């Protein structure tokens, strides 16, 4: 058989920086990054896309960024025409969002050696990462995540994506950023729900990989709920580190049958959709973790004590572990999430469950009755939690 | 400075197969490929997109493919609802083309472990490769190029792309195919222009890398013009091999300042656009090669003898080396292609010229007067070539 065989490897490298007040004129981190990347022959530009939610809580941000680069003007050429886009899952449904970014790339002459930076939550990072990945076959992309969830999870990873005709992340690519800047100052202005929502990804990764980290979260759950920044900085750093290790140690672009660092996610994706994204990703993941922990207990894999430690930790963090749409038990309900998850993975269903705190194991089928039992337990516990409050009125 | 550093490599591997009558029931090459890729846990599907131009000359192709996979049904599950799309550069301007492919991926449940095969010329391969790259963050993509140009050049490479608001390949990615099948039988039905057009990429790569290959083309130019299939098969194989070697030996995804295997292309891209793609890519490249060879001669780098060998070889192959739009010498003319090429490369202009047959060298500027002189020479030579024919009427 006459053929030519081609093999090559492509090396990807990037850093995740932890800082405070990234755009303070005395913080040279970002300017230093651009200076180190500079080359004699080309003048590189920087296009900045900002989440409108971030601009609402930080109205001076565009001016601050402009001021920063006027003081560090030799590092990169800032495009002062900022692109401000709405965030949230709904924004990923709008085809115009990507087009606006691509048009800005075109209008400002951003080439393959220039940069597009995204400042915002996971949705804006996903949108901008995708637009950067497809423009000129890939523009250098910088992520400046502003939420707990994006700083410790999606923002440090290699995926991007947008929804297509309502299908979550139907369009997307695997392209690493050239750098990630995690500025903890952005976390101080998050509302309660967004502060909390990101913590569930830390619980998830701890439960499947690192018992000691779970116990740290358990011990610090009250501090985290009380918005202790030192605790949150540790959590974000540890979680980002584990996420990076998982990517590098595995199959970064998921070309084989390897799967992402998932636990409690199959139902979470569906629950988000069923509630029309009124429930946030992290809130849905907390419920998904609770469900799959109870399922693991039913299998005899997790003790009642350990299961309760998980549920108590999640509740101490402030999560509500039941949502009425869980009981939409028909062909369009949460159970349908199982078959959709199978399709998303491509072929075989693979779900992570727990054999112990810190020890995830994969299974290839789940029993609908056991899932319903886990949901029933959560419904019952939640009504008991609420009862005293109601009777006390 | 607090940071985490991430580094990983991703390995890409694929084969380029040379065959005849790929879909003949007795040719097991394709079925064997799918069987080797099969895994126990998943049933993989195959969606086939065909260039409408190919269907015109091979009206039985869909039926032949259906018949092939009914006889090799255990290798893969064929989606018998073929997607037939127009080819040519114009098709890459139409945003609906990508949407049609993505919708078919969705409709037929093609997941990341399934395949999308494209049968056609370079434009359809580019379109399908792009749609496959962005669907589900990348579906396995198979190329079955049907033109000389796509079999020896673009079809074996790692790029895809579509035009955006008239800008050539403004959207695209670097994603290798999982396999390429070059079926020489498709070449027999090409019209004269498409048969010839692909040869100019072989002349290009020979001139900058391999004098012996150029001399082979020179000696076989009449045979190639007379559609000698043995000569063409050798040319396609040698050219594909050099193209693969260039990719693997360099910077496959062009992340640094490395550039593609280009010569004679800066003007060719512009000339295609100026003629509204009436001139084909390979025809424009032949003119571009002639121009930049004459330019190299003006610099004293290439002898008059060698320059004439190049021009004579191109003319023996059947190329016309002048096009009136070359003289649209204003801000919208071919010279504008220089600045657009600079922008496309990102930053510094880099143009390949010739120091000798088989030896390309890069320069970072070109002189407008010398370019005009090269154009004038081509105009004059072409009028001399045409004169006897006209006076003989």
Attribute tags:
about 400 residues, alpha/beta, about 45% helix, Dehydroquinate synthase-like, alpha domain, disordered C terminus, 15 helices, lyase (chains A, B), Rossmann fold, 11 strands, homodimer
The number of helical elements of chain A comes to 15
Which consecutive residue ranges of chain A, at least 5 long each, have pLDDT under 50? Answer: 389-393
Return the domain count of chain A: 2
Q: Order of SSEs of chain A, N→C?
A: EHEHHEEHEHEHEEEHHHHHHHHEEH
Q: How many β strands of chain A by DSSP?
A: 11
Mean pLDDT of chain A: 92
Largest sheet properties of chain A: 7 strands, parallel
**Most extensive chain interface and residues per partner:** A-B, 69 and 69 residues
CATH topology-level fold name of the largest domain in chain A: Dehydroquinate synthase-like, alpha domain
The 3D shape of chain A can be described as: globular
Oligomer: homodimer
Q: For the CA atoms, what is the radius of gyration of chain A?
A: 22 Å
Q: How far from one another are the termini of chain A?
A: 81 Å
Proper CATH architecture of the largest domain in chain A: Up-down Bundle
Beta-strand proportion of chain A? 15-25%
How much helicity do the residues of chain A have? Answer: 40-55%
Structural class of chain A: alpha/beta
């Amino acid at each position: 058989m006459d053929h030519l065989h081609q093999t090559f490897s492509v090396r990807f490298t990037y850093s995740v920086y932890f800082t405070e007040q990234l755009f303070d004129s005395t913080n040279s981190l970002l300017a230093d990054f651009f200076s180190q990347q500079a080359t004699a022959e080309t003048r590189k530009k920087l296009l900045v896309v900002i989440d409108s939610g971030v601009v609402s809580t930080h109205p001076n941000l565009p001016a601050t960024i402009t001021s920063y680069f006027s003081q560090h003007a030799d590092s990169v050429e800032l495009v002062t025409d900022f692109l401000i886009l709405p965030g949230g899952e709904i924004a990923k449904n709008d085809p115009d969002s990507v087009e606006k970014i691509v048009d800005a790339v075109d209008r400002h002459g951003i080439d393959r050696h220039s940069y597009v930076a995204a400042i915002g939550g996971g949705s804006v990072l996903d949108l901008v990462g995708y637009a950067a990945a497809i423009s000129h076959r890939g523009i250098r992309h910088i992520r400046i995540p502003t939420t707990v969830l994006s700083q410790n999870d999606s923002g440090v990873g290699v995926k991007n994506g947008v929804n297509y005709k309502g299908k979550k992340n139907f369009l997307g690519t695997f392209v690493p950023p050239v750098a990630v800047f995690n500025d903890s100052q952005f976390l101080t202005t998050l509302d309660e729900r967004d502060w909390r929502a990101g913590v569930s990804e830390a619980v998830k990764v701890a439960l499947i990989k690192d018992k000691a980290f779970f116990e740290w979260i358990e011990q610090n759950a009250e501090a985290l709920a009380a918005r202790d920044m030192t605790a949150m900085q540790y959590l974000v750093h540890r979680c980002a580190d584990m996420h990076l290790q998982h990517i590098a140690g595995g199959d970064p672009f998921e070309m084989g049958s390897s799967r992402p660092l998932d636990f409690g996610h199959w139902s979470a994706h569906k629950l988000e959709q069923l509630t029309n994204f009124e429930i946030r990703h992290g809130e849905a993941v907390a419920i998904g973790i609770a469900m799959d922990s109870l399922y693991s207990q039913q299998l005899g894999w997790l003790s009642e004590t350990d299961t309760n430690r998980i549920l108590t930790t999640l509740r101490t963090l402030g999560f509500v572990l039941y949502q009425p749409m869980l009981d939409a038990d028909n062909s369009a309900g949460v159970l349908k999430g199982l078959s959709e998850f199978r399709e998303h993975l491509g072929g075989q269903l693979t779900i992570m469950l727990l054999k112990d705190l810190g020890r995830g194991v994969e299974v290839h089928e789940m029993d609908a009755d056991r899932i319903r039992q886990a949901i029933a337990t959560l419904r019952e516990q939640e009504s008991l939690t609420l009862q005293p409050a109601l009777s006390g009125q």
